[in-house]
Amino acid sequence: MRRLGSNDTLTVDDTLKEKLVTDWRTADLCEFDRLMLDYVERVARAAYEIDAAYIDNLKAHGFTDRMLHDIVQVTAYFSYVNRLADGLGVELED
């Protein structure tokens, strides 16, 4: 999903960027990235549906406990901040 450019910065192809924003399922991603994004979506929308079998499947595909922890932490933080802003009626600045 990511690659380092010649100037050692993280770059994302514009086409990929558009697909990630509109529907990540249509993007040309490796299985690992697809599993990660599915996990992110489940954590954000229906974490109560995640069971041991789902986690075991992620681990079978190379995810470590640390990776899963970090994914949940970042997803939960952004979910929290977005709900806080929405609940307070905060609008984006131009």
Model description:
With 94 residues, this protein is mainly alpha-helical. It has a domain at 29-87. Helices cover 62% and strands 4% of the residues. A two-stranded antiparallel ribbon has the order 1-2. α2 packs across α4 (65-87). The longest helix is centred in the last third of the chain and has 23 residues, at 65-87. Residues 1-6 have low confidence and may be disordered.
Give short descriptive properties of this protein.
single chain; 94 residues; mainly alpha; two-stranded antiparallel sheet; 4 helices; 62% helix; 4% strand; disordered N terminus
Mind describing the biggest β-sheet? 2 strands, antiparallel
Give the distance, in angstroms, between the N- and C-terminal Cα atoms: 29 Å
Mean pLDDT across the residues is: 89
Q: What is the CA-atom radius of gyration, in angstroms?
A: 16 Å
Would you list the SSEs in sequence order as H and E? EEHHHH
Question: What is the structure about, briefly put?
Answer:
The chain has 94 residues and is mainly alpha-helical. The protein is built from 4 helices and 2 strands. It has a two-stranded antiparallel ribbon with strand order 1-2.
